[in-house]
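Reading a protein record of the kind used here takes only a little practice. Each token is a code from a learned vocabulary of local backbone shapes. With that in mind, consider the following protein and its fold in token form:
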Amino acid sequence: METDVGRAPDRRRHARHAERGRLMRDEEADTVLCHVCGRAFRSLGSHVRAHGLTAAEYREEFGLLRTRALSARDLSRARSTAQRIVYEASAQVRADLAVGHAMARDGGLSREARRSFVQGGASAEFVREQAERLASGRRSQAAAAAARLEARVRSLGYPDTAAAVRGLYVVAELSMEATARALGIGNDQMRQLLGTCQVRVRAVGENSPAGRRARVALNDLAAAQRVGAQDIVSWMRERRSQGATLAELAACTGRSIPWVMSRTRPPATVGR
């Protein structure tokens, strides 16, 4: 029977029995799965030669890290232990590895790795691991943000986020921005929360009783500060009783004549 050992690898006939960019393991049996034939081995280093591949070609063919050990976990640990024993016992080995250690300390190995990626491209395993780390980081950040929001909601006296959103935005009629500040979140997240809680977003400029009251109070305060009064309504009524015209009061307060008229009407006529 012919053997594939020694032949150039024919990548067109290498069926994949495992995901590209991932070394599949049987954790219970502590074996690794061959991408080509689907069989499990303690070590793939010598086995892949039966498929016409060196270990380096196998890693490249199936998108694994160039440094990926093609062996069972306990075998990798045993080899690592043996290498450490040899390193500690042999001055020659330590001398041989001194250059590499120096490059690791000064960042030389990282620069070499970046150059290698630029020239040869990142392996599928590297891309996958980077994506998984990024996704894991995002999940961690999302969990931390959710915990902060829950703590803020509790501190405001609400049982849950939905109750807080409705209490602040719907009942108290705070603006979306003010509600977001109260909850300690950004405006984008606030808008998402409104959708999640099925709360309609008020249109820009939409009037609400609370909004109207707030604007009236702000306008009164600005006018009072302009003329140096404590209560602008009382001040204008007093001046009006002394003969001041609507135009004169409007000029003093920096407001319009209709505004002066609305704020100086007798209390009994308000709202009629």
